[in-house]
Design goal:
The chain has one helix at about 10-50. By secondary structure, the chain is mainly α. The protein is rod-shaped.
Amino acid sequence: MAKKTAKSTNPKRVAYEKKQEQEGTKVVMWIIGALIVFGIFYAIWSSFMVA
């Protein structure tokens, strides 16, 4: 029977988890950035609508 390794010691799993974490962080930053940009556009648009 094949020797089982712990989750934290399997190098492929560790590398995959690290890659997933980096990609997830990048996606979250893009979403937050898009929300900030849309918020700025909305503030500019609403200031023109009031004037």
